[in-house]
DNA sequence: AACTACATCAACCGCCCCCGC
DNA sequence: GGCGGGGGCGGTTGATGTAGT
């Protein structure tokens, strides 16, 4: 690499900032009709005063019909946590394991929710705290060992099934045995003033959000697989209604016209009709296009 | 009601990789 | 093999929304 590389576009001649509904319509219509063989030239061809990269980003993160909208489910958050432990900040890699979710979205939710929780737990763990999980709860010894390494704790399993946990740094002040359920224990400085026993029922019903992050990876394995629909169709319908409301009729290609085409393949090797048909309305009237 | 602090997330920036010439 | 263009990716920013005082 090196100097002299031309910028992707002339920034003085392109519009920046939030996309307007009209721009969205223009971009969606163009891609429905032509695909996106070349992002750099697309804005000009579509009549958009935008940088090609901006168009690509807008399409991938927001306008693509198979983008899953709405809040992340607990299962998705669980997946992100696990995948992040495996891949690190490889958001695209993580996103590839979560259909309908974009790298940008995952990156955002990690930075806003999950990372914070992770950090909080690290702080708590490094302060005064003991914990363990019973073998009866289904949590594996492997998990205990992981905690031992991570938290600098010495973990001894007794013949009775009890587990003795000692902080290596402060062995005399913070050791305990725990024999049932999940114990979350802390002190004032850790922000966990109470010792609380979470029954599995309680966790299932009310407190999934409160299960500390470091428990989660193994903890979640205890849960019965939840049936979660692949896509929140309500969100999709709301999105379509919003588009109907915000976007006026256009003279561009319609979804039904698109569907009339035989599995047209764009230059990315993607089958356009398959991209669109599952979520975009079959009739253009549904969108007012 | 007004102000401030904090949270959220869409969008931008710049670097890197891949591929065709 | 070197070069340049295009796409993809990860980090960061800033506008907007929301909660707290």
TrEMBL record:
Subcellular location, record wording: Nucleus
Keywords tagged on the record: DNA-binding, Nucleus, Repeat, Transcription, Transcription regulation
GO CC annotation terms, alphabetical: nucleus
Ranges of Polar residues composition bias in the record: 272-289
One GO MF term: DNA binding
Low complexity: compositionally biased ranges: 251-271
Domain HTH myb-type: 11-63, 64-118
UniProt superkingdom: Eukaryota
SUPFAM superfamilies noted in UniProt: Homeodomain-like
Location of the region described as Disordered in the Swiss-Prot/TrEMBL record: 251-289
Location (main, coarse): nucleus
Domain Myb-like as annotated: residue spans: 11-63, 64-114
Record's protein name: Uncharacterized protein
Protein's organism: Deinandra increscens subsp. villosa
């Amino acid at each position: 690499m090196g100097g002299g590389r031309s910028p992707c576009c002339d920034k003085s001649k392109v519009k920046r900032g939030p996309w307007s509904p009209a721009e969205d319509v223009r971009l969606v219509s163009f891609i429905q009709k032509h695909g996106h063989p070349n992002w750099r030239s697309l804005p000009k061809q579509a009549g958009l005063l935008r940088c090609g990269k901006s168009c690509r980003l807008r399409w991938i993160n927001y306008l693509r019909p198979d983008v899953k909208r709405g809040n992340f489910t607990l299962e998705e958050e669980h997946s992100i946590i696990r995948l992040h432990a495996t891949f690190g900040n490889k958001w695209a890699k993580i996103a590839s394991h979560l259909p309908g979710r974009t790298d940008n979205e995952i990156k955002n939710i990690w930075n806003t929710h999950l990372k914070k929780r992770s950090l909080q737990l690290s702080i708590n763990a490094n302060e005064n705290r003991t914990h363990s999980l019973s073998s009866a709860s289904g949590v594996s010894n492997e998990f205990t060992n992981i905690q031992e390494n991570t938290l600098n704790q010495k973990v001894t399993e007794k013949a009775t099934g009890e587990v003795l946990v000692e902080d290596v740094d402060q062995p005399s002040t913070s050791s305990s045995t725990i024999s049932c359920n999940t114990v979350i224990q802390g002190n004032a400085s850790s922000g966990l003033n109470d010792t609380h026993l979470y029954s599995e029922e309680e966790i299932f019903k009310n407190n999934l959000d409160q299960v500390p992050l470091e428990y989660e990876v193994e903890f979640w394995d205890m849960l019965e697989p939840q049936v979660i629909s692949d896509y929140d169709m309500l969100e999709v319908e709301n999105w379509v209604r919003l588009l109907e409301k915000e976007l006026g009729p256009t003279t561009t290609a319609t979804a039904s016209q698109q569907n009339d085409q035989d599995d047209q393949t764009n230059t990315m090797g993607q089958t356009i009709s398959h991209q669109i048909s599952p979520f975009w309305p079959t009739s253009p009237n549904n969108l007012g296009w």
